[in-house]
Structures are given as structure tokens and as C-alpha cells.
Known about the structure:
Layout: H1 3-28, H2 40-62, H3 68-100, H4 103-134, H5 137-144, H6 147-168, H7 175-206, H8 217-230
Helix pairs in contact: 1-2, 1-3, 2-3, 3-4, 3-7, 4-7, 5-7, 6-7
Amino acid sequence: MSMPRMRNHLLILLVVSGFFVGLSFIVANANTIGWDQLSLGWHILYYIEAILFAIQILIILFCRGNNPFNQKVLIVGTVIFLYKMAFDPYLMMFMFFKDRGVYDSYAIVVYIILILGFLLHIFVLLKLINGLKKNNADSFEKTKRSKFRIWLPVLFFLVLLSGLLIKTGLLGDFELMFGVILVTVIYLATLIGVCEFIIAAYCIFRFPSFSVNAPPKQQYVNKKKRRKRKK
């Protein structure tokens, strides 16, 4: 959870989310749909996306100092924008549904997937929390730090593949269903991955040893001993 690495995470998430939201915005402005034909709710959603992109860029640009405040902003931002990236692919799919005139047919299926996926996310998060209680906070840093490197390139490949196949229409009538499958894989993988960052955020806020300016270990241990004696 080093600060340069978290900034890199946010930059990659910015690119990936930008691809999904940008493609959905292009489809929304196509002749088939038209921006003016979208309801106010969709307009507000795109305005919120623009605000979140601006905040994400500001965090990347200005949280550069190596201090606890910037560290906390970066880890909270990583958690928030991972959630955002999990849902952004479905914004793209919704615009494709509207473009093909099948929104009513596919929307209910997507909403069910979103609910079930979020329940899975809660289950994985609770399981991770219970596992952390059985061990200790320091073991989390040693065992979880490398997983993000493994699944992020896979998700990025799925991003490009889903957008390319749907935009070019290579799969004919099956492209929308194939797109739903791909973005669902991205959605589930991201929600599972964000659980580890939630635990990391908790550790950074809760335990001084996770801070970039952590106190000397012996000093921290002595403080804990003095507190026990007072009790």
C-alpha cells in the first residue's frame, strides 16, 4: 500500500473507467438514442460521473506528499473508485441496450446480477474480516499485497475485449449477451478485490504501524505496555 503504488492504482482506474464511461457517452449521443432523448436521471448520472472523474484527477495530482493525510486520502479514493469501476461497465451496457432497443429485456437481468454480486461482495468481506480477526493485522500486509497486480491486467484485457467486440458487432445477435457476461466477470472480480482494500483502509486508519510515518516499533510497544499497566 505504498503511496506511489496507490497513485498508480488510481491512474489505471481512471483510464479503465474513462474507457467505459466514454464509450457509453458516445453511444448515448448517437443518432439512435440522442442525448436529448435520455431522461433527467441519466443526465444526472453522467454529471456525477464527470464530478467523480474530476475528484479522481485532483487526488492523483495533489496527493503527492509522503504524509499520513495523503495516505488516507489515497486509500479511501482507491476504495471509492474501485466501486465506481465495478459499476461503470454496466453504464456502457445500458446504453448499448437502449441503442439496440432491448433495454426492457436485459435491464431486469442486469439488476438481478448487480444485487447478487453485491451480496457476494458482502459475504467475501465478512469472511476476510473474520480471517483477519483470527490472525493479526500485520499478517494482512504480507499475504495480500501482490494480488492486485495479478487481477488488474486481466480486468484491463476484458475491458478492451468487451468494448471491441460490442462496438464492432463481430458476434452478431450474441454480442450483447457476451458483453453482459464479460462485464459481470469484471464486476464480480472488482467487488472481490475491493474487499482487500477496505481492510487495508481500516488498518491504515486504525493501526499506527501502517502509517507512512509509523512510530518506532519499540516505542509503540512500550506505549502499549504502559497503557496495560495503567489499566
